[in-house]
Design goal:
Number of domains: 2
Strand content: 15-25%
Number of helices: 15
CATH architecture of the largest domain: 3-Layer(aba) Sandwich
Radius of gyration: 22 Å
Low-confidence stretches: 1-25
Structural class: alpha+beta
CATH class of the largest domain: Alpha Beta
Number of strands: 21
Largest sheet: 8 strands, mixed
Oligomer: single chain
CATH topology of the largest domain: Rossmann fold
Distance between the termini: 53 Å
Helix content: 25-40%
Shape: globular
Length: about 400
């Protein structure tokens, strides 16, 4: 593949000329396109692609003509089976001699959109025409005339099959082993003092950070960190801080939904704070509520309803939570790390009977029961069994947004 330097948008960039292209496609690698993660658009001539301008920004990566956000480098020998082969959250755009390959993980944790005018992006708002979402578990091939030539879809059950006749203790051991084996890299933990983040704080030797507008929550966070023997950096934000970022958050998550915005603002502030402290990654407890039965609404369900609801929530993790959080990470150019969404953790967790997740003990309903039992090995009981409000309420963000919007 021949390489030469050219000028584009007043910047020096790399043009990769593909000698084996069936037509004269050139891939132009843009060196400074902000906050887009993966982005590519095409210059058309007579309805065919003449040039493609492509960019990836951290935490996304580029290897040759493959642009991706994934902890595992995609092996295009198995291009048709990427959702089966890549056991992690991912999105991939690969420029092949005859087509463009697009794919996402089975949970849909990494956003990816396209249009048939050959534009591809992690965000919807960069499209001139109506963007089309690459579906979770989908593998899509588009030729350079903008025609879909192949489409495959792998359903959730192809990847995550519920195991029967496995002892709960064995499943919990597998979850514990997967969490212990996880390598967090140069990162920090978004610490709330709840069981999810506290267990991760006890397991991983990384610093803690937190953001809140709530004085009582700050007191608890500092106390919990001290009990765990951990130093912590806390950003105590005010109404003015929320006002300053709310527009950027709204643009990043690409929705006006109030609930989504109220969850997104503290996540955005935490990522921005972590980035300002020099961290390249931030660990969140995403997935714990869905996998282990953490939502308040689960308390009113019988076990048959609970089984269906938890599975539905796990299946829709990407759509309801991860796409939002990943876009915020892209906006801040920081890596979102979610140990509870390790494939081995998911496989074991979905096989645990729901009565171990939302348990009834001595007349009380205890959510995330089985995770709290595991956490007892690493945490004091006052932390392992402490109930906690949702992030938008505990941090005080929901109250502030209702006042300023």
């Amino acid at each position: 593949m021949a390489k030469n330097e050219i000028k584009f948008a007043s910047r020096k960039i790399l043009a990769c000329n593909w000698n084996n292209f069936s037509t004269t496609h050139n891939l132009y690698c843009m060196s400074n396109f902000q906050s887009m993660a993966i982005y590519a658009f095409s210059e058309l001539e007579s309805g065919k692609v003449k040039r493609i301008y492509a960019s990836s920004r951290y935490p996304s990566k580029q290897t040759g003509n493959v642009f991706y956000d994934s902890d595992i480098t995609p092996n295009l020998k198995f291009a048709d089976e990427l959702p089966l082969r890549l056991e992690c959250l991912f999105s991939v755009v690969a420029f092949r001699p005859s087509h463009v390959l697009l794919s996402r993980d089975i949970l849909g944790g990494k956003p990816l959109y396209y249009s048939l005018d050959m534009t591809f992006s992690s965000f919807k708002n960069y499209f001139e025409s109506e963007p089309i979402e690459v579906l979770p578990g989908e593998v899509l091939k588009i030729n350079y005339e903008g025609e879909i030539i192949e489409r495959k879809y792998y359903p959730f059950d192809d990847i995550f099959k519920k195991e029967k006749d496995v002892e709960v203790d064995e499943l919990v051991e597998r979850i514990e082993k997967a969490l212990l084996n996880f390598k967090p890299g140069f990162s920090c933990i978004a610490f709330s003092g709840g069981v999810d983040s506290s267990l991760l704080a006890a397991i991983y030797d990384v610093p803690l950070i937190s953001v809140t507008a709530n004085e009582k929550e700050e007191e608890w966070i500092r106390y919990a960190a001290k009990v765990l023997g951990k130093a912590i950096e806390i950003f105590r934000f005010r109404e003015k801080d929320v006002k300053e970022v709310v527009r950027d958050v709204n643009l990043a998550i690409e929705t006006d939904d109030f609930l989504q915005l109220s969850i997104a603002v503290p996540i955005y502030l935490a990522m921005k704070f972590a980035k300002s402290l020099g961290y390249s990654g931030i660990i969140f407890g995403q997935g714990a509520d869905e996998l282990f039965g953490g939502y308040k609404r689960y308390e009113e369900l019988d076990y048959m309803q609970l089984e269906d609801e938890i599975l539905k929530d796990v299946r829709s993790l990407g759509e309801k939570n991860l796409v939002r959080d990943t876009k915020i990470a892209y906006k801040n150019e920081i890596k979102l790390i979610a140990p509870y969404l390790n494939w081995d953790v998911i496989r074991a967790a979905i096989s645990i009977p729901v009565e171990y997740k939302v348990a009834r003990v001595d007349g009380k309903v205890i959510r995330k029961y089985i995770l709290r039992k595991l956490a007892e090995k690493y945490l004091p009981k006052e932390i392992a069994w402490r109930d906690k409000k949702a992030i938008q309420y505990s941090t005080g963000v929901s109250k502030i947004l209702k006042k300023i919007l």
